[in-house]
Amino acid sequence: MTARKIIIDTDPGQDDAVAILLALASPAEIEVLGITAVAGNVPLPLTEKNTRIVCELAGRPDIKVYAGCDAPLSRPLVTAEHVHGKTGLDGPQMADPTMPLQDQHAVDFIIQTLRDEPSGTVTLVPIGPLTNIATAFLRAPDIIPRVQEIVLMGGAYFAVGNITPAAEFNIYVDPEAAKIVFAAGVPLVVMPLDVTHKALTTRARIDAFRAMGTKVGDMVAAWTDFFERFDMEKYGSEGAPLHDPCTVAYLIDPSLFTGRLINVEIETGSELTLGMTVADWWGITDRPKNALFIGDIDAERFYALLAERLALL
Question: Which of 47, 165, 214, 224 would bridge with 37, disulfide CB 3.0–4.6 Å?
């Protein structure tokens, strides 16, 4: 089996950081061609910085990191410091990165990579707002049929919303971008809140990270300790969902997940439901099926995979 070539598009965020670590810890299955940062959980100067911090934590300062779009396509930026803290990686004290930020714009890197690599061999893994991906598709529509697959974290149906009553954060921040990506015709795998809310941290799972006795294990435990407080208070749950690593775990072992191929449309016009992923889970319409919408996860095996791989860093 050859490693899957991917570009991670991200807005770290503690759970984004864990997703990046999982990818870098899994070279047999995943080859990270580069990581592109987008404004989302925190503004772009912090997301690109946090991405480099995480690469250095993984011992991979060779990974190329690119800064992308600093605002949604047509709306003011909405951020999530209330969840992730003012830096986006609040919790433990983090040293500033020393590895360079690449000069090339993230969108140009995405376009160039999809043109240079053989068609159908590069998977995009967006775990933040979809601004960079949509901008690349608008600017260079020739790359769209060259994408092998998009595996993204975003949206919700049964879990409804986490930033508004109807919308999940990543889609809500740039619904116009999401509409472009969902309508592009690229094979699409969606990790919505419906599945990530079944991948909750627990005291035992966090303790397993800390028990590794490594810098990575200690950092992941500290990050999850920090951001789980918000979700536990909000939902009354035992822990917090590790949203973004679900995308990378799917690429490593899709048998961890189950879902349905359905139609998903993005609401861009309503004040009440802006950013909603209107998921036709029950096949009520005849709209074309455009997304494998994941609904369930084997959480025990997911956390076992996380612990096994992160221990390698």
Answer: 47
CB burial of residue 269 (10 Å; 0-12, 13-18, 19+): exposed
243 is catalytic: yes
Q: Which of 289, 9, 291, 276 is nearest to 149 (CA)?
A: 291
Q: Which amino acid is at 250?
A: Y
The region, left, alpha or beta by phi > 0 then psi within -120 to 50, assigned to residue 192 is beta
**Given strand 291-297, what is the order of strands in its sheet?**
65-67, 30-37, 4-10, 122-126, 147-153, 188-191, 291-297, 257-262
d(C-alpha 121, C-alpha 85), whole Å:
36
- Residue type, position 99, single letter: M
- pTM for the predicted model, two decimal places: 0.97
The answer to whether 200 and 237 are in contact (CB under 8 A) is yes
Q: Which residues lie below 8 Å from residue 170, measured CB to CB, with a gap of 6+?
A: 40, 126, 127, 128, 129, 130, 152, 153, 154, 155, 178
Active-site position among 84, 105, 197, 243: 243
Question: pLDDT tens digits, the chain, 313 residues: what are they?
Answer: 799 999 999 999 999 999 999 999 999 999 999 999 999 999 999 999 999 999 999 999 999 999 999 999 999 999 998 888 889 898 888 889 999 999 999 999 999 999 999 999 999 999 999 999 999 999 999 999 999 999 999 999 999 999 999 999 999 999 999 999 999 999 999 999 999 999 999 889 999 999 999 999 999 999 888 866 666 666 666 778 899 999 999 999 999 999 999 999 999 999 999 999 999 999 999 999 999 999 999 999 999 999 999 999 9
Q: Which two tokens stand for residue 249?
A: 């775990």
- Closest to 226 in 3D by CA, of 15, 49, 32: 15
Q: Is 248 helix (H, G, I), strand (E, B) or coil?
A: helix
Question: Residue 200 gets which letter from DSSP?
Answer: B
